[in-house]
Design a protein that fits this description.
- The complex is a heterodimer of chains A (123) and B (277).
- Chain A is mostly helical and 123 residues long.
- Helices cover 83% and strands 0% of the residues of chain A.
- Chain A has four helices and no strands.
- Chain B is mostly helical.
- Chain B has one domain.
- In chain B, a hairpin with a 4-residue loop joins β1 (140-144) and β2 (149-153).
- The chains are: A mainly alpha (123), B mainly alpha (277).
- Chains A and B meet through α1, α3 and α4 of A and α3, α4, α9 and α10 of B.
Amino acid sequence: MTDGNNEKTAAGAETVISRVLQAGVFVSALIILIGLVMYLASGKSGYPGASFPSDPAAVIQGLFALKPYAVMLFGLFLLILTPVLRVGISIIIFIIEKDRLYTVITAIVFTILIISFLLGKAQ
Amino acid sequence: MIQNDLCIFFISAAAGLLGSVLGLGGAIIVTPALTLLFGIDIRYAIGASIVSVIATSSGAAVAYIRDGITNIRIGMFLEIATTAGAIAGAFLSGLIDAAYLYLIFGAILLYSAANMLRKVKTEFHCAAAHPAAAKLRLNGSYFDSTLGGRVDYNVAGVYEGFGIMCAAGVVSGLLGIGSGVFKVAAMDAVMKLPLKVSSATSNFMIGVTAAASAGIYFLRGDIDPSIAAPVALGVLAGAAAGTRIMRRLKSATIRLMFIPVLAYVSIQMILKGLKVI
């Protein structure tokens, strides 16, 4: 009886997680490609020399100014965030499916990820 | 400029293809290719490699989860160990001499390569489930298209596997190695998962471990868009192709492909430990 329930739960979670990853990969790849085409077509990065921004705020600013490097970096940033988003969404799915054990497990992973981001920023 | 980008794109596609089939991030191809063939600064090569790990992981996971090959429960459970280990590794990096770690882990990997070689023809392990596997609902099944049927499997060595994943996380935090090989080897040898499940689940996990450090690399300015962009696109294309190929391969074939990669990485680690390279 419980086995059947488990399979149903896992299948539902799997579909949503797969969709989230697919959306993240598609959107970020599209933005990276647009930026790369802009860069190769114009031959300009939008920044002096070989420099590029690393601060998210500066990347967003450059994105609105349609600077090719900023567009590429924004796409790369979204790509990096995709696994984090995947973990975050999984928590919500497990909560909805009332799977307490895996809600806790996923929340622990998410917390550790956030801690590592904060530690990295502090470094 | 375009020719260079195209070359990087195709090499990255090869890395994404191999990585998605074997459950690795492809950094073992991307880093040396960028530094040796293109003369790119190691700092930016590592930054691009981290992006390649995430691209392989997310790109391949889309297909493997949809096909039900990935065991997301095992992945989520073991991610606690790999992410916590990675943080510990980052902290330990000032305290421990990396040379010993390279030697120890190189030796372990070489041993697992030899072990794999002995059971190279094995399609599946037959294992009794670990008591904790039932509690955590880790035992699973997947549809194997080469065998034309569902394969049920039990998960052995849950605690040992968790411990090894912790060590794999520490190693990736310390040595900056994606540790995909460790994950696959441990899931195969200790947890006795079918190799396709090990590969797909490793793929699922490496993105999360890499994302934690990728954020740091990004803020530090190590991710150069002119290098990382063609790498990301190439890897994504390669991973999409790789998932189609992996579906048609037998576990024994994947194992056969995995052994030389495992041997290569272990010898490289031992040589680094001995400070030969």
